[in-house]
């Protein structure tokens, strides 16, 4: 996710912001991580594009997931970005992680005392059950698929607005909530840490109602929302810090300035004048790299490893991508060295040959489509195309986001594939609607550049399966962009998911990655690293190429700016 680059879906996230679809990774800190934040002041987020959705049942990419942590709470959550293990899952509104039944089919949680929404209404098990059940709504529930994939529900259940209470979720009293699963899933605590597993007041949130009145459960509430321009958050007076072991909520307010050009953002951060000393953003632009080596800026630079994979998904339901030889040919022909250059060079990206990045548990190192220095092997590609009668090439349409780096990446692919007589037409889609568009099979073109991050980085179980499980193809919010539905792949997913030894399972997920790439439903392109430049007054900023934890960031001196 996106984590979605969507998402898990997900991708290199909305606004290239914090960044892609879905879960977590580490950082090599420069200047701010060791600084102690002070309570107070306003932090400014400078970003190019708006968030996909403020509704967590709909949004599912790294940028908006980070934003959700500021205003929504669930039973569990990913640990703080400065924790000893930032990938761990910890209790949030629940007193502890879940208690599983002996057969693994029932999970029980107990809510803490003192939980409330920003209007003062108490949060009970009923509000948690209602919020989670929204994931089943056919229009709203286009975000993280994990709730629907694990909690038992009849096929005709359409969420709380159409079908009423969720039959697979029990609330025996105000503090207890019980989930019934379709099959044992040892990682269910991780499922409830997904952005759509949050509490909502019963009966609220239908359609676009929440945009005018977001009811928050986290430390901040939405004071102002001007789509495409500004989001201002202020403190939620009914949030009790004693019930929250993760969110530090140092600043009094957050301002998200939207619609800024990437070069403008970098210029403002480098200058660091006035309120921009209190600003953060997504990754810096490649053109800015050389300039931030200056002595007065270098101390502020932060870097982060790649926890996401940028890839090109090929729609296997459309000719000629319904032929494995064609998809393999594309994998051979792509010049990943050129893609690396287009993305800012080796400081910002490494060529990707697998779906699972090296930083994620379960990665296996392999390259089924090798070439000298990752420059591509057009001869092998032409040989494969000729084997299926396409020696004269073909043409296809490639969906891309309206972002400079993605357009540069698309042009690199265009140039490489022109060498094997494959003509690529670019379909440029606005960033704010990109993931919804490519996640709607009826609107997909032949291929799309996107990205994927693990929904939890401690396991590769969320890295490859969501992209290739044919049983998860949906009319909206679809992460299987290839729309591949292979019985062997589906059975292999079930086999590994049934393993109770999670370390052994991770080894098998690495093998599975290689098995999937033999069928080539996608072409891994890059593992995009991050270089960031926070304002000089920012403290405890630990960037992450999947999802930066905003809840631990503060200011060194709140009186500045």
From TrEMBL:
Q: Which InterPro entries match?
A: Peptide/Ni-bd, SBP_5, SBP_5_dom
- Enumerate the Gene Ontology biological process terms: peptide transport
Single GO term (MF): peptide transmembrane transporter activity
**Entry annotated with the keyword Signal:** yes
Q: Which domain of life does this protein belong to? A: Bacteria
Gene3D superfamilies xref list: Dipeptide-binding Protein, Domain 3, Periplasmic binding protein-like II
Identification of the protein by name: Peptide/nickel transport system substrate-binding protein
Organism name: Glycomyces harbinensis
């Amino acid at each position: 996710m996106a984590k979605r680059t969507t998402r898990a879906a997900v991708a290199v996230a909305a606004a290239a912001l914090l960044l892609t679809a879905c879960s977590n990774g580490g950082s090599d800190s420069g200047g701010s991580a060791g600084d102690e934040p002070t309570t107070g002041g306003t932090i400014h987020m400078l970003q190019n594009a708006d968030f996909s959705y403020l509704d967590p049942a709909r949004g599912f990419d790294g940028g908006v997931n980070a934003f959700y942590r500021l205003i929504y709470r669930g039973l569990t959550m990913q640990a703080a970005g400065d924790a000893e293990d930032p990938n761990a899952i910890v209790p949030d509104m629940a007193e502890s992680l879940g208690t599983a039944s002996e057969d693994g089919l029932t999970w029980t949680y107990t809510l803490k005392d003192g939980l409330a929404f920003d209007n003062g209404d108490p949060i009970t098990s009923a509000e948690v059950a209602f919020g989670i059940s929204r994931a089943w709504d056919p229009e709203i529930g286009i975000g993280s698929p994990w709730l629907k994939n694990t909690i038992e529900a009849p096929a005709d259940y359409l969420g709380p607005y159409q079908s009423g209470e969720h039959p697979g979720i029990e609330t025996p009293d105000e503090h207890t909530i019980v989930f019934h699963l379709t099959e044992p899933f040892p990682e269910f605590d991780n499922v409830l840490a997904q952005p759509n597993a949050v509490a909502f007041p019963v009966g609220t949130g239908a359609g676009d109602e929440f945009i005018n009145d977001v009811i928050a459960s986290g430390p901040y509430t939405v004071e102002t929302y001007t789509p495409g321009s500004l989001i201002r958050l202020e403190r939620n007076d009914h949030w009790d810090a004693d019930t929250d072991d993760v969110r530090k909520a140092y600043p009094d307010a957050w301002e998200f300035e939207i619609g800024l050009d990437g070069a403008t953002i970098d210029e403002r951060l480098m200058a660091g004048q006035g309120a921009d000393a209190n600003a953060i953003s997504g990754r810096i632009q490649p053109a800015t790299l050389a300039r931030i080596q200056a002595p007065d800026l270098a101390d502020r630079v932060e870097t982060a490893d790649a926890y996401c994979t940028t890839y090109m998904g090929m729609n296997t339901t459309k000719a000629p991508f319904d032929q494995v030889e064609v998809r393999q040919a594309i994998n051979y022909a792509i010049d990943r060295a050129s893609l690396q250059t287009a993305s800012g060079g080796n400081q910002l990206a490494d060529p990707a040959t697998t779906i699972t990045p090296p930083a994620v548990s379960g990665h296996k190192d392999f390259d089924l489509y090798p070439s000298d220095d990752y420059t591509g092997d057009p001869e092998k590609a032409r040989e494969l195309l000729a084997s299926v009668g396409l020696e004269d090439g073909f043409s296809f349409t490639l969906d891309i986001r309206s972002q400079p780096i993605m357009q540069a990446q698309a042009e690199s692919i265009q140039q490489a594939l022109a060498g094997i007589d494959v003509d690529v037409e670019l379909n440029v889609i606005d960033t704010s609607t990109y993931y919804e568009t490519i996640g709607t099979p009826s609107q997909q073109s032949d291929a799309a550049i996107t990205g994927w991050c693990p929904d939890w980085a401690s396991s590769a179980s969320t890295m490859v399966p969501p992209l290739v499980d044919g049983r998860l193809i949906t009319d909206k919010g679809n992460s299987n962009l290839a729309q591949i539905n292979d019985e062997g792949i589906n059975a292999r997913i079930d086999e590994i998911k049934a393993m109770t030894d999670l370390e052994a399972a991770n080894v098998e997920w690495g093998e599975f990655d290689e098995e999937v790439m033999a069928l080539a439903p996608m072409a891994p392109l890059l593992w995009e690293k991050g270089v960031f430049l926070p304002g000089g007054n920012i403290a405890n900023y630990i960037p992450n190429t999947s999802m930066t934890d905003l809840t631990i960031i503060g200011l060194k001196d709140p009186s500045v700016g």
